[in-house]
Description:
Layout: H1 6-27, H2 29-51, E1 63-67, E2 75-78, E3 85-87, E4 90-99, E5 105-113, H3 115-123, H4 137-145, E6 147-150, E7 158-159, H5 163-170, E8 182-183
Amino acid sequence: MPTVSWAARTDAARTPAFMGLRQFLNERTGRALAVAGGLLLAGLTVFFVATRPSSNIAQPRARAFFTVDDGRTWFADDATKLPPFDKDGKQAVRAYVYRCPDGTLFINHLERFKPEAKQALANANRPDPSRKGSGNLAAVQGAYTGRQVKRPGEEKWIATGNFREAAKVTAVKSPRGATDATLVEP
Length: 186
């Protein structure tokens, strides 16, 4: 019995089906191109409909929680506001609100930006013809070096560039000591 290699057997096994498809496409080129064009057109239509902004549907604004009294109370406002900002004559800072498994709400930590970081972030999306390369580099640096966090009731703000101390502040810890709370969105 002659020995046939594995590659020769698999090529022989695939050849009839492949040749059948190739023969089918060669004999019906017009139909094959019409089907391919139709599939391409359908895919492009789905893509453009899914990615175009809808002008007749109101887009919800992103919202976040803020506080003016060191976390005793909080309110929802536009998430694009960079804290601290003035709210009824008081300085508002970002409040990260969490829910315990028993339903209790609490503020885990507060956030604000130093004035220079806030300015860099505010200017990041403004067009500036004199800016070369990545215009958001100052904003990214400002967000890392100028962002500060603290727990409600504490006096000292911690720079998030101090990773170890900032991680202690932002680690979720409920008033009862539980760590399984979930972030609440307004």
